[in-house]
Design goal:
single chain; 284 residues; alpha+beta; D-amino Acid Aminotransferase, Chain A, domain 1; D-amino Acid Aminotransferase, Chain A, domain 2; 8-stranded mixed beta sheet; 14 strands; 28% helix
Length: 284
C-alpha cells in the first residue's frame, strides 16, 4: 500500500512510531474525504474542520501546503485515478514520553499520514438502522471533531451489524437522537427536514453542512432541533456522510421510507453542489 507519511512516499507496511500519542492515546484528528477521479470533494470544508480540531487539541500542526497535489499523486500511485476513492488524512500530536502530559514543543513533531483506498460504487439501497445502547457524548472533544478515539462509534456500528442492520442510531444522555455511528441523520416529517444540533451530540459533518447551506435551492427547510425516537419513527429518515452522500434509511417500526420526493430533491441538490465543487477543484 502506497501512502504519504511526514513528507515521504512510502510502501512499507508500518511507519507509525510505537510512542506516537495518536496510536497510544487517540491524541489527534482525522478527516475522511471523497476523492473522485483524483480530485478531492469539498476539501476546503474538510480542512476547516481539521484545523478547528487541531486548534481545539492545541496541536501545532497544519495540513501540507501542497495537499491537493499530494492527493492527485497518491491517486495515481494507488491506481485510483479513475472512479471514487476514500482518502484518510490523519494528524496526531506525534511521539511523546509516557503519560498524559503534552510533550514539550521542541521534543515532539506532529505526525501527518495520508492514505487512499478505492471506494465501491454508491449504494442507493435503503439502509437499515438499529438503536444502540452506546451513548453519544454531547460535550468534549469527541463531539466536536473527529478523533482516533472512536470506540463508542466502533462498538455501536458492530452491534448494529451483529443485529443485522447497516448502521446504528446513537442517542445522547437525554435520550434524543444524536447521529448514526458513521453518519449524520435527518428525518422528514410533514414536509420539514430536521437534523439534531451540535448541542445534542451531532458531529458537524461536511455533507450535513452542504445541505444546510443548499437546502433552499431544493425548496426545502431544514431545522436543527432535538429529535426524539418517536419523531424518528414517524418520519422519513436519511443519512449523510462524505462517502455515501445521502442515503435513505429505515428504523424497524418506522412508518415512512427515506426515499420520498423531498429526499430525491435534496439528493439532486447535493449532487449538483458536489459536481460543481469537483469541477472548480479540477480547474484550479
Amino acid at each position: 500500500m502506497t501512502f504519504w507519511f511526514n513528507g515521504d512516499w512510502c510502501d512499507a507496511p508500518a511507519a507509525i512510531r510505537i510512542d506516537d500519542r495518536g496510536f497510544l492515546l487517540g491524541d489527534g484528528v482525522f478527516e475522511t474525504i471523497l476523492v473522485r477521479n483524483g480530485v478531492p470533494a469539498f476539501l476546503d470544508r474538510h480542512l476547516e474542520r481539521l484545523v478547528r480540531g487541531l486548534k481545539l487539541l492545541s496541536i501545532n500542526a497544519a495540513p501540507p501546503r501542497d495537499l491537493f497535489a499530494i492527493i492527485g499523486e497518491l491517486a495515481t500511485r494507488s491506481g485510483a485515478k479513475d472512479g471514487d476513492a476514500s482518502l484518510r488524512l490523519t494528524v496526531t500530536r506525534g511521539p511523546g514520553e509516557r503519560g498524559l502530559a503534552f510533550p514539550r514543543p521542541d521534543a515532539s513533531t506532529p505526525t501527518v499520514l495520508i492514505t487512499l483506498t478505492r471506494a465501491g460504487p454508491r449504494q442507493l439501497n435503503e439502509r437499515s438502522l438499529f438503536v444502540s445502547e452506546h451513548i453519544r457524548a454531547v460535550s468534549g472533544v469527541a463531539a466536536q471533531c473527529k478523533t482516533p478515539a472512536y470506540l463508542d462509534n466502533v462498538l455501536a456500528q458492530n452491534a448494529a451489524i451483529a443485529a443485522g442492520a447497516d448502521d446504528a442510531i446513537m442517542l445522547n444522555p437525554a435520550g434524543n437522537v444524536a447521529c448514526a455511528a458513521a453518519a449524520n441523520i435527518f428525518v422528514i416529517t410533514d414536509g420539514v427536514v430536521a437534523t439534531p444540533p451540535a448541542s445534542d451530540g451531532a458531529l458537524p459533518g461536511v455533507v450535513r453542512g452542504v445541505l444546510l447551506a443548499e437546502a433552499a435551492a431544493a425548496g426545502a427547510v431544514i431545522e436543527e432541533r432535538s429529535i426524539s425516537q418517536e419523531v424518528l419513527r414517524s418520519g422519513a429518515i436519511f443519512l449523510t456522510s462524505s462517502l455515501i452522500g445521502l442515503a435513505p434509511a429505515r428504523l424497524d417500526g418506522s412508518t415512512d421510507t427515506g426515499a420520498n420526493e423531498l429526499f430525491i430533491r435534496l439528493d439532486a441538490c447535493y449532487q449538483r453542489a458536489l459536481a460543481e465543487d469537483l469541477r472548480q477543484a479540477g480547474v484550479a
